[in-house]
UniProtKB/TrEMBL annotation:
Residues 12-80 form the HTH merR-type domain. SUPFAM superfamilies: Putative DNA-binding domain. Transmembrane segments: none annotated. This is Redox-sensitive transcriptional activator SoxR. It comes from the Bacteria. Keywords: 2Fe-2S, DNA-binding, Iron, Iron-sulfur, Metal-binding, Transcription, Transcription regulation. NCBIfam families: SoxR (TIGR01950). InterPro entries: DNA-bd_dom_put_sf, MerR-type_HTH_dom, MerR_fam, Redox-sen_tscrpt-act_SoxR, Tscrpt_reg_MerR_DNA-bd.
Length: 150
């Protein structure tokens, strides 16, 4: 393990260094920045520079994504932090409580879907009289395109 000079701790990181340290592609970091999830400053040469605290924000983003939290929910949670500061352990506990409710709802929906699919043979075209997922007479068209019961 390389020893870090204490003076080096305050040195901003390049996008490549953040990518390497976080395990996130440079393109993903640019995307996160475009969505306001992380932020950088520009060097005199116009290159992105990040404070080391961005590593914790990226870790929070990646963990939240891994458990299925949408970027919109992640963005809202990070935006609620005062001065867009780095999340603390207390912040994580608060965010995870909010996300737990979101996950519980998704688990309920997926469980219901799983249970309704037990009798389905695929698209349901051969069991339209008993399929719970079908849309008789296109009754759900006013709710938008695509599957509405899922």
């Amino acid at each position: 393990m390389a020893k870090i000079d204490p003076a080096d701790i305050k040195r901003p990181l390049t996008v490549g260094e953040v990518a390497q340290r976080s395990g996130v592609a440079v393109s993903a970091l640019h995307f996160y920045e475009s969505k306001g999830l992380i932020r950088s400053v520009r060097s005199s040469g116009g290159q992105r520079r990040y404070g080391r605290d961005v590593l914790r924000r990226v870790a929070v983003i990646k963990v939240a994504q891994r458990i299925g939290i949408s970027l919109a929910s992640i963005s809202a949670a990070l935006a609620s932090l005062p001065d867009e500061r780095t999340p603390t352990a207390e912040d994580w506990a608060r965010m995870s409580r909010l996300w737990r409710a979101e996950l519980d709802e998704r688990i309920t929906q997926l469980t219901r879907l799983r249970d309704e699919l037990d009798g389905c043979i695929g698209c349901g075209c051969l069991s339209m009289k008993v399929c719970k997922l079908r849309n008789p007479l296109d009754e759900l068209s006013d709710q938008g395109s695509g599957p509405q019961l899922l």
